């Protein structure tokens, strides 16, 4: 009788991925510390943000399942995004603010380039998951918030720009109070288009040659469109609140 030995698939535990992600984020922060004068607050903010990511991965990803290469791409993005958000409030601190803005723009562009790669990799390896989709979406939202902070700190626009990055988080908080807001929304070309416009206007606004008036005008249109999009979705959910309760 021949006994066949089944080899278990090689699994890298999630904590190992989180370790290299933390190391990579630390490297980004060390590089940022050479541009900005407030290195200690940056490391404190980054530690809090990456801590939330670690908690999400440890509590929501199965320990006996490999993290997957698609999620690792998102983790790579998150290490860079954490550094971008942590350094954003101090972007105008050094005398070489123009140089710092260019570096920040390149970092944000790098994070955007890798956005979408994780989704393609997940489909190619048949490893798409609800966790991966949510992980990617949360990193997109965090990047937008970082860009809003950078635009405000650079003086290109007022603090009202932060509404672009905080509006989604206000919506998330509202879902904990109003249960009918938790109903899944259908795919929307409108929502995707406005999200792209939001990111493009923020990316353009932080570029040093762009004047504050032009940046404020384009960002104001993005804020109005985003507010309209949220109101449209909230109204759609409100109309179906009783149906959701009976399903």
Describe the overall structure.
The chain is 72% helix and 0% strand. By secondary structure, it is mainly alpha-helical. The chain folds into two domains: 12-133, no CATH class; 155-241. It is globular, with a radius of gyration of 20 Å. Residues 1-5 have low confidence and may be disordered.
Describe this protein with a few key phrases.
mainly alpha, 2 domains, 72% helix, 0% strand, disordered N terminus
Count of alpha and pi helical runs: 10
Q: What value does the Rg take, in angstroms?
A: 20 Å
Count of domain modules: 2
Poorly predicted segments: 1-5
What's the N-to-C terminus distance? Answer: 55 Å
Order of helices and strands: HHHHHHHHHH
Give me the secondary-structure topology.
Layout: H1 14-33, H2 39-60, H3 69-87, H4 97-114, H5 117-124, H6 130-154, H7 162-177, H8 189-205, H9 212-239, H10 241-246
Helix pairs in contact: 1-2, 1-3, 2-3, 3-4, 3-5, 3-6, 4-6, 6-7, 6-8, 7-9, 8-9
Question: What's a quick, concise take on this entry?
Answer:
This protein is an all-alpha fold and 247 residues long. It has helices at 14-33, 39-60, 69-87, 97-114, 117-124, 130-154, 162-177, 189-205, 212-239, 241-246.
